[in-house]
Write a structure and sequence with these properties.
Elements (H helix, E strand, L loop, with lengths): L19 H34 L11 H4 L18 E2 L6 H10 L3 E8 L2 H17 L5 E8 L14 E7 L9 H15 L7 E6 L2 E3 L11 E5 L1 H4 L27 E8 L1 H20 L6 H11 L4 E3 L5 E2 L13 E3 L6
Helix pairs in contact: 1-7, 5-7, 7-8
Length: 340
Amino acid sequence: MGGLSEGNTRSHSGNGPFPSSHVASGGEKQMRRGSKRKLLLLVSLALSLLWAGRHLRNRGAELRLSDWFDPRKRPDVVTTTDWLAPVIWEGTFDRQVLGRHYQRQNLTVGLVVFAAGRAADQYLEPFLQSANKHFMPGFRVVTYVLVEDWYQLPALPPEPLRTVRALAIRPDSWWPDPSLSRMKNLGEYILSHIRGEVDFLFSMSVDRVFQGDMGAEALGAAVAQLHAWWYFRDRRHLPYERRPRSAACIPFGQGDFFYDGAVVGGTPARVLDLVRAYLGGVLQDARQGLNSTYESHLNKYFFLHKPTRLLSPEYNWDADLHPPLQVQLVKVLQLAKRDL
């Protein structure tokens, strides 16, 4: 198990003995300088991710879809998109064919989980225990746990083919949005070493528990998770960002599905491209005085760059919702929210 990375130093500033009018003026200037610094850092990181994404190689040749996927076995649900990507439901795939194909490639799959604050204390241990049992069984898996302090990583018994590594959440205290902090850390760690260690990479929220196997059927160049709540709603009412000035805008009358940001995956190159697009969209919105949600930017990205594999709501079902008949097997359960 790897140790925490060296933490970044925090900068502190004290208040000097100035008259109140001078303090206000100096504070406004400092806020403007801070805002410019944030925008410059976002620009720098986005450009770095763009450059690196062009130099990452995609690994793992794809099977023919017909070799392992049979949409006719689930006529009760949408199993193929308009752009002919499979939607993975229980019963539609042949796990043995997929297993033989991917085992020959000697793959390593990465799993990133972001566990900040008290969420680590409440959710991290059951997440890791269930992932060790059900996430990509039979494959080499490296689980990267982003925590604030190393002691938040629970003691787990060693498992064959499994490695757990703790990575420090970089203390960028000026990032108020946890999604922004998560994606920024994800992009930086992909750049620093994850891209050279795994063939496929998934990022998941920590408040999940695996109840069934999430195996090779989920592997693809760009993997998106269908939102459990919105999948069964009228597409005309999906909560896309509609403000035309926003980088996340999807105009009325357009859009495919509503994707859940709790699970994203694919090759490191494609995940890195998603991070780059998200940070670029946040930067563009900041310049316009807008603040769109992470899922709005995610949905805009997959609207422009269609996912090659879609995971049905079975892979991220909400514990607060009673599953309909179409959800035959809940493989990943989103735990009921508790006060953090």
